[in-house]
Design brief:
The chain has 2 helices and 2 strands, in the order ββαα. With about 70 residues, the chain is an alpha+beta fold. It has one domain. A two-stranded antiparallel ribbon has the order 1-2. A hairpin with a 2-residue loop joins strand 1 and strand 2. The model has no long low-confidence stretch (mean pLDDT about 80).
């Protein structure tokens, strides 16, 4: 199973921003990619005309999953 999960780095620890369904002690492989908002949103500029922030966030999350 693969899943994209947003995390926040605090005090040396990556903390997920949503609940995860893993067993305690389960080992995982993690790929880390620094989030670049401009890189993600650039793909959608002008496609939908004027968009509100919530709409752009939805497309940003979709792009991050790709």
């Amino acid at each position: 199973m693969s899943k994209v999960v947003r995390v926040r780095y605090e005090n040396g620890v990556l903390k997920p921003l949503e609940p995860l369904e893993f067993r305690e002690g389960e080992e995982l492989v993690v790929f880390i990619r620094k989030r670049r908002v401009s890189e993600v949103l650039e793909k959608y500029v002008g496609i939908f005309g004027r968009a509100d922030v919530e709409e752009l966030k939805k497309y940003e999350e979709e792009a991050q999953a790709q």
